[in-house]
Amino acid sequence: MYHPLPLRPAAALRAATLALVLAVPLTAPPAAYAEAPIKPAALRPGDTIMMIAPAGELNETRMTLAAKRLREMGFEVIVPDDLFRRRGYNAGTDEQRADELMRAFRDPDVDAIFPGTGGFGVTRMLHLVDWDVVRANPKIVIGFSDITALHLALAAKANLVTFHSPNPQWGLGSDSNLADFSAKYFWRCLLASENEEEQGFTYKLPKKNGPLVPLAPGVGEGTVTGGNLTLVAATLGTPYEIAADGKILFLEDVGEAPYRIDRMLSELRLAGKLDKLSGVVLGQFRGCEDDDDRGGLSLQQVFDDYFRGAAYPVVRNFAAGHVPLNATIPFGVPCRLDADSLTFEVLENPVSVR
């Protein structure tokens, strides 16, 4: 009879490890995506909003006006004493900005976190964030542009629903306040009074925006993710990169030449982020048309090369991001995109009503 020799300790450990690995189903989903994203509590009058500056420097006049308008709506507003600090093109050092974000998440009296503006700097401080604290204290987080990096990180590390939306400096604090269109979807997403009865809503674009433009037909459903294309591309290969499979991808940008849009879309494609989508919603990409005479591709040609004839629905010209009419999009919430009827709808309320 064959009697196997006893394994040495190191070999025994390797064998035990291999047995454990083989015992785990290879199809098990990653823990981060096994559960539905966490919806933060809806806002009610009397709740507290904290202004923060995680990216670029802030305009004190605009931020003061935004705080005044929020208080007039019945909210308490925290404006940190050092909110208007500056270090070059950032609102302070990486440590200052990360600490401010963590103060907002740790403070039990803070119900919503409003980054003042985008600009540049969020990616510089993500490694300083205590994600255990964030996961334990889910709160409303809004913003667009550079705040895309924060949206992606909150999805990857905390599984939190967040809101791609106007911000205090470029919306609530502007001379005209939020345009009616922008205000409608901002408060529809955030307020308890807007989320107690109706479930979900359909975006209705104003005539001056123009209709959605189809690039690929069909209907798709999935949670929505994305944001500013530059930031989506910049976070590839990091712990905060976008999880795109099965989702509706929203992308927008501003002031980028078509060849730069082309390069960033190619990065997404090479990373496999365009392979298994449920749909794509493209913004208006204001200022992204090349006006030189070098004979380059137009922005439409670039979009056609990547999305025309895709296996999922694709539309262009949605009003969100770096445009005057800036609809709020709840990232992490199920949506439906119909490129045949040119409709984009949110299927569930994006906040929990206490």
From TrEMBL:
Keywords: Carboxypeptidase, Hydrolase, Protease, Serine protease, Signal. Residues 221-337 form the LD-carboxypeptidase C-terminal domain. GO terms for molecular function: carboxypeptidase activity; serine-type peptidase activity. GO terms for biological process: proteolysis. Residues 1-34 form the signal peptide. It is an enzyme of class 3 (hydrolase). The keyword Hydrolase applies. Its EC number is 3.4.16.-. The active site is at S145 (nucleophile), E252 (charge relay system), H322 (charge relay system). Residues 49-164 form the LD-carboxypeptidase N-terminal domain. Belongs to the peptidase S66 family. This is Putative murein peptide carboxypeptidase.
